[in-house]
Amino acid sequence: MAEAYIVGAVRTPVGTKKGALKDIHPADLGAHVLKELVDRTGVDPSAVEDVIMGCVMQVGPQSLDIARTAWLSAGLPENVPGVTIDRQCGSSQQAVHFAAQAVMSGTQDLVVAAGVEQMAMVPMGSSVAMAMEKGMPFPYGEGWGERYGTQEISQFRGAQLMVEKWGLTREDLEKFSLESHRRASQAIEAGYFDREIAPIAGLAKDEGARPDTTLEKMAGLKPLRDGWALTAAVASQISVGASALLIASEAAVKQYNLTPRARIHTLALCGSDPVYMLTGPIPATEKALAKSGLKIDDIDVTEINEAFAPVVLAWQKDLGADPAKVNPNGGAIALGHPLGATGGVLMTKLVHELERTGARYGLQTMCEGGGQANATIIERV
């Protein structure tokens, strides 16, 4: 099987709901990273064979195949097509998988994997508004009801169920959140993200990290529901952002004089309990490790999406992972989670952290709506 290489990886800073990026059209956000990716890699953009872009809420400004509109908005060649995909929060990680699979299969040589989400402009849940307006079961049909009944299906309930199943406490969650903010703030101050970020609208740094937060401040927040351990402090932030990576074959690397930065080592994904919803990273990681022949201790850096603190804490417990090697520069609790862009954001962070530290293996995994997860292992070259 042919090898697939990451030869470019770039992202916008992740903006907050009311921050500097709130009024930028999502097609322009996507266009910004696509143009920057072309400029940084020096690739002939007309040689790109497809643009695969993750986006979760594909309505309003994010409708009509935003992969295509973002590419054209960037002023890039009309001969290059684009397709928009939705694997919920893992959409742009799945874009990386699809791009790598196209290259590994030998059917394509240069593919862009990207993601965008403008959560200030297109709120989470917008894509199901039509179903609710028409009185349809939100958002499931009769077959779902026969299988799972009428119980609540939500990421919030799923996170609380994980708290209970894994025996976590509110203090556990808040300590984890505090550490995420500490690591993120330290990384921002040290400039660890500067190389990977394409500044836009005068913003060059991620907006979400709170260096002044404390356990005392978190303790004063009300739980999302009475009796729950979850508060807003232990959940990912509503965000705005975009990301883009260029995946190339060995032949394309030689033909276009590109520089490989990481090899796509292993791809895995799985389904999991849709009621718990957020547990998928555990079996997905186990599957990826089994396929790769590696052990968790062989992984130098892990980026696991901090949708909620219990997702990472449960994963660490079951995998036996060293917390020091997991989200070493903070995660979505501090840095934000622009849904369809996050997979690409995490992969971009992972590539740059492997380069910064000289480490070899990186793992990325994230929970996804419907009870799913992707896991990707890359090797720095």
From TrEMBL:
NCBIfam families per UniProt: AcCoA-C-Actrans (TIGR01930), PRK07801.1 (NF005865)
Give the top-rank taxon of the lineage listed in the UniProt record for this protein. Bacteria
* Active-site positions on this chain: 89, 337, 367
Stated name of the protein: Acetyl-CoA C-acetyltransferase
PANTHER family named among the record's database cross-references: ACETYL-COA C-ACYLTRANSFERASE, BLR7806 PROTEIN
Q: What is its EC number?
A: 2.3.1.9
Every copy of the Thiolase C-terminal domain together lies at 259-380
Q: Which family does it belong to?
A: Belongs to the thiolase-like superfamily. Thiolase family.
- Organism name: Actinomadura craniellae
Q: Could you tell me the keywords of this UniProt record?
A: Acyltransferase, Transferase
Query: Start and end of every Thiolase N-terminal domain?
Result: 5-250
Tell me which CDD domains the record gives: thiolase
User: What is a single molecular function from GO for this protein?
Assistant: acetyl-CoA C-acetyltransferase activity
